[in-house]
Amino acid sequence: MGRRGRKGRNVQGVLLLDKPRGDTSNGALQRVKRIFNARKAGHTGSLDPQATGLLPLCMGGATKISAFLLDADKRYWVKVRLGVTTTTGDTEGEVLETLPTEGITANDVAESLVDFRGEIQQIPPMYSALKHQGERLYKLAREGKEVEREPRTIRIHELTLLSCEVPEFELDVRCTKGTYVRTLAEDIGKKIGCGAHVIDLRRTGVGPYDGDQMITMEQIEAAAEQGFESLDSLLLPAETGLGDWPEIKLSPDSLFYLKQGQPVFFPNAPTEGMVRLYDPNSRFIGVGEVLDDGRIAPKRLM
Questions:
Q1: What is the pLDDT of residue 128?
Q2: Which domains does the chain have, with CATH numbers?
Q3: What is the per-residue burial (b if ≥16 Cβ within 10 Å, else e) of 74-110?
Q4: Which of the following is catalytic: 48, 90, 108, 172?
Q5: How far apart are CA 92 and CA 138, in angstroms?
Q6: Which residue, of 16, 187, 238, 271, has the fewest CB within 10 Å?
């Protein structure tokens, strides 16, 4: 379909949705997209249907930064129950085994967390969206099939025991992308010796965004009754998703060459990493990468 045939408004920005329980991430995205009548929108990494919390939705040109949010660190609040393992690692699955938890203390739980901080190996669960020979693992799992999965290296930056009344405990987890919290809970249960599964999961942070900024579906629907101006006021600028990346304000000449796809030299530029790019009028124009020779190359331009 050509540009003339594309329907919807040219909405620009990031909406920090508090995903409701029971909705798939794509289902929540499509619902919000319809309310905003947005021409283009995408999300930044799925949450399980039974999980709630932060799901940044990128609209319009902001979809160009969605990959950076996908790669960003995540933060979760999770409630775990000891003594019961399930097929899915959460309450959605069938019970596999029940073991006693008598004699297990909060100190046992706290001590078990030590081995899970820092860089660890994790085997992705069968009930996940990863693909094996073109098929989603969760689809194979529903057919009763299990395939071998390679361990992956992840990093748990923070793992804090918030409360513990055996058989249940709550954790605050800050981790790299690709971390499966259900698997983390199961592995902690194995370490303690009685198994475990997740009974509640809420994402509280993605990259620079935290839970305090979330917008509920009810707030979105209330804003929609006031019109598109009220809805659009809920959006954050695209560059807010890039956290504390260094900022580069380009000269007219540098901007010209950068738009042609050519790397440019910039005085006092960072020596490595990614940067936010602004035009001479301080308008955000995209993302650049610092090359080995110190020049800045365009990575994603708005």
A1: 67
A2: 3-71+209-240 (3.30.2350.10), 74-206 (3.30.2350.10), 245-301 (2.30.130.10)
A3: bbbbbbbbbbbbbbbbbeebeeeeeeebeebeeebbe
A4: 48
A5: 13
A6: 271
**In angstroms, rounded to a whole number, what is the distance separating the alpha carbons of residues 14 and 208?**
12
pLDDT at residue 38 in the model: 94
DSSP state of 38: B
Q: And the tokens for 192?
A: 């303690």
Tokens of 38: 């947005």
**DSSP designation for 114:** G
Instruction: List, in order, residues 6 or more apart from 49 with CB less than 8 Å away.
Output: 21, 22, 23, 24
3-class DSSP assignment, residue 191: helix
The span from the CA of 143 to the CA of 208, in Å, is 39
Place of tokens 């010796």: 193
Residue-level pLDDT at 292: 84
Structure-token match 């919000």, residue found: 32
What pLDDT score was predicted for residue 1?
38
Is pTM beyond 0.90? Reply is no
Query: What number is the average pLDDT over the span 26-52?
Result: 91
Do 78 and 170 contact (CB within 8 A), yes or no? Answer: yes
Structure tokens belonging to residue 83: 């003594």
- Lowest-confidence pick of 133-137, 244-248, 261-265, 287-291: 133-137
Sorting pLDDT into bands at 50, 70 and 90, what band is 169? Answer: very high
Confidence of residue 232 (pLDDT cuts 50, 70, 90): very high
Active-site residue, 48 included: yes
Residue identified by tokens 């490595």 is 272
Give yes or no for a contact between 189 and 171, defined as CB atoms under 8 angstroms apart.
Answer: no
**Share of residues in the chain with pLDDT > 90 (%):** 54
